[in-house]
Amino acid sequence: MNLLDILLAGSTLGGLYGLIAMGLTLQYGVARIMNLSYGEFLIAPAFLAYLGVTAWGLSPILMLLLLLVLPLGFIVQWLVYQLLLTPLVRRTGSGPALEVDSILATFGLMFVVQGVMMVAFGGNYHSYSYLSTPVQILGSTVAANRLLVLGVAVALGLGLYLLLTRTRMGTVVRAVSVAPRFAPLVGIDVRHTAALAFGIGGAMVAASGVLVSMFLPFSAAMGTMFAMKALIVVIMGGVGNLLGCLVAGLMLGFAETLVATFIDPGLTLAVNYALFLGVLLLRPTGLFGKGAR
């Protein structure tokens, strides 16, 4: 594997990790709820894409990602917040009790969703072939689906950034994230905004699930692994910081690629946690956390 192969593989994996983490950091940064079922809502759209391609003959990009998965991911996570988490918010407010209760609630939801997928698809790994043809770039060979995944991940991440920084809705979301206690003073409905952020995060993780399914085998039990990696990226980058998610995701992607190429693929999880601990020792609040400025 030459330098260009490493750059392409690391940027594809890192960009995908960054995109996955963006949805989680948005949910936690605005709603103050750590969604432990996040990974399961990544694997579920992957199975939907698998069915779409193998059983229905649909394109995972045009039909599933743009027309079905993004709106469905938004609606499902919006409903999770409204039906499961809003009663907890009303009962506990926004203090430490909410964090404890929401962790327990989403932990239980994780097993419910995982159990449904286990019954429907079993515990085996699944995959499908989509744009797996090789493409030559400056003497390096890469699968076309990996390039497509990288391009879509960049487009979705840029779209989310522009949504949050260039629109009135994004200004409202950022206001609740920075000062939830004072947002009602200017007429902002905090719970409505939190539900909106939860839905946007759901759209991001659903899109990520489709992208994962295009070039990686997956199973019903893999959600926890992706949730842990997303949490690592969120904390490394700084909670609530989209740029931090991108930088930390790329760091993780390149670290995994280098270790898998030159040392041992079985050590990729170990290097994840080593990098995570190293960043926390130097920057306890994350690379772009408030304490790091």
TrEMBL record:
Where on the tree of life does the source sit, at the highest rank?
Answer: Bacteria
Main localization category: membrane
Q: Where in the cell is it found?
A: Cell membrane
Transmembrane residue ranges:
6-26, 38-56, 62-81, 102-123, 143-164, 194-218, 230-252, 258-282
Annotated membrane topology: Multi-pass membrane protein
Pfam families to which the protein is assigned, alphabetical: BPD_transp_2
Q: Which InterPro entries match?
A: ABC_transp_permease, BCAA_transport_permease
Coiled-coil residue spans: none
Keyword annotations for this protein, in alphabetical order, are: Amino-acid transport, Cell membrane, Membrane, Transmembrane, Transmembrane helix, Transport
Q: Provide the family line.
A: Belongs to the binding-protein-dependent transport system permease family. LivHM subfamily.
What is the protein's name according to its record?
Branched-chain amino acid ABC transporter permease
Q: What is the lineage of its organism?
A: Bacteria, Pseudomonadati, Pseudomonadota, Betaproteobacteria, Burkholderiales
